[in-house]
Design brief:
alpha+beta, 11 helices, FBXO31/39, four-stranded antiparallel sheet, eight-stranded antiparallel sheet, about 400 residues, Monooxygenase, 16 strands
Length: about 400
Amino acid sequence: MANHTAGIGPVDAVITSLAISHSRPGLFDLPTELIDAILSFLTPVELVGLSPVCRTLRDHANNDIHWHQHVLANLPGNAIKSPYPCRTWRDLFIAHNQYWFLTRNKIWFCDRSLAGQMIIVRYDERRGCIEGYQLLATRTRDGSEPWLADPTVHIHYFEPIVKLHLDKVVLQFNVDSLENLMRISLSSPDSKTRPTRRFFPEHSMRSSQGSDPRFSTFVLAKPLPQEDIPSHPDAGAIFPYNMVWPPPTIPATHRVLGHPADIVGQPSYDLITSPRWRPVNRSEVSETTFRIRQWMEWGPPTIGFHIGEECVTYSTLDPSLYTPTPERPWRGIWVGDYSVHGCEFLLINQPDVDEEGYNEPLIRLESETDEDFQSRFLAQKVYRGRLEAIKLTGDPNVRAANTRSWQTT
């Protein structure tokens, strides 16, 4: 008998099962727990697509068990206990629907001028908001001491403290944003206006810091086609590196259109109206890059004009690049001491070795001691391949951000 359900999506498969003859048990004859277990494999979009089928499936799709799971999937290492200030986990997921990728990726770096910036995006369970703060590193003390092996060599003290700059938020999304309040109002039974489903690539951000005179908007980004990405960076190209962000020195799944870092700091009109600049629907959105547009407004809101406008592009790092393994122990995000130029963040990239037989397990010989096996492991698995340091932030007078600081093989 031919399989007529091959190649169809999960939602279509559920709908198809409803049409099966009543001579054998159907989907709704299963225990509720089994139905929920089946639906736990669906994505949020698929759960929403299942709701219009019938009332029973709508009730299962709206079950908070599924939405709790999807919220936690976007908060690695932060197992929150309550959907506060929302009533349900589903409401919380919808409130931050377009921004969950920010907390899922957590670490972001940008092309702001030539110095760059790193931010950490997190979810605050107390207020139900997503917020991002700049990551800073400072020295705890200055000075040096002579090296015991050679007293003519002095080793500088370096015990940095890494912390968030909590006095100044970079991005913030609240549950009670104007966008969410309008959506809730239009979705209420008393509303006479049916909510329209439109995609907006740019969203206003309301800062909780009333003294901040800046206006900010969050702009979704569109990945560049592979053929538009230069395979080798041009050393003489205008920043940021052939108009691409992140630069080719940093491995990335998505790269987007960048713009020159100048005094004005804003992209040209031709650039922002380019079809490669921003997405037109959800399928075109990059979840590894985004932009923030900021400005100050002179005069009344109705007739005021923008001054000091800038547009900054952010990108994340794949966790595999900074997560150490027994074979790649130096992977990570490190703090470097650049003397009078201060502390800077570097990505120590230790790429996998592409050699025949390297990925085969190392088997301990019967005659080997622990020290001999460890020595052979280090020689054959660890001390192999390339090691490079790429600045994520940096003083342009030393080495600009997102350029190689050093490399060894």
